[in-house]
Amino acid sequence: MKDKEEMHAYSRAIETIESARHITVTGHLNPDADALGTALGLWWILKDLGKRVDVLFVTRPLPQALSFLPGYGKIKHALHPKSDLLVSVDCGSFDRLGIERPEGMMLINIDHHQSNTRYGDIDLVEPHFASASETAFKLVAAAGWDVPKNGAVNFYAALVSDTGFFGYEGVGPRVFDFAKTLLSLGADAEWTARMLRENQPLSKLRLLPMALETLTLHLGGRVAGLEVTERMLKKSGATVNETDDMVNYARSLATVEVGFLTREEPDGGIKVSLRSKSVVDVAKIAASFGGGGHIRAAGFTVYGMERDVLVDRLLNMIKKELQQ
Ligand code: 5GP
Ligand code: MN
User: Fold this and answer.
1) Cis link prior to 70 (omega < 30° from 0)?
2) pLDDT, tens digit, for every residue of 193-215?
3) Is 301 in the pocket of ligand 1 (CB under 6 A)?
């Protein structure tokens, strides 16, 4: 966005929020810490403005491991009929919200996905930002709204999680300035790290060896694939969101540039997570399968395709990208 156009979008968003009566903040299906933390952070901030605010996520069950986020227990699963403004966070395309948009309801799209389709009436999309909470905070700071401690706690968890604990590409002085601000507002670094890393359900650890057993190397070891089947989920008792960071094991190998994980979905689809280190633009590959994401982390879901066929197609695309 150009500077002037951008400030215009932020001012319009501030005006729209300040004149709304009942705001619903929502995010993508199968939400991660960025989606939940950004939505809940905004919930605390907007509530303090005296607004009626709901946080809505249609996915059920929500990831239990993220129940430490303040306000988690207040999350709604259906849109309140009196709501007059929708705010979406961390969601690249409207269909990923999993809701119908009531006619005439304004929508503000707060995101950081490179692949964002600009589906809002007002789009605040910052592809270079490390988390959706950074975009949300830019709005909050521009408006001069107060950030209560629980708002900062949520935004910080979102930031830590989406930056891989400050280790991903794009982490620089701006991100640390944001983290510093959130810590000054009451977020706790040690507690957040513990909650994100050492608060896992047993089912997730039971699933891990089953998934690692499927590890397969391709293209001379530059690509590694993992598979999670419905049977494995059933046997371990894990819910789908418990596979969320498993793809990182595939990428963690020294020779690997691209790691992927396929997961069988209850509706017959195959969900694919893609991660790269420094060369391959996985958002581009995901987009060609109808998905999206970021340059080093992206995903998509396919229907009516055998896994073998899917993996062949995927490897062909990765091979081309690796040759460039
Ligand atoms: P994950 O592999 O963890 O599900 O997702 C990695 C990144 O890609 C996230 O930023 C996520 O929002 C995005 N992503 C995953 N699946 C899809 C999809 O089907 N469509 C789009 N547009 N983005 C996706
Ligand atoms: Mn995000």
Assistant:
1) no
2) 999 999 999 999 999 999 999 99
3) yes
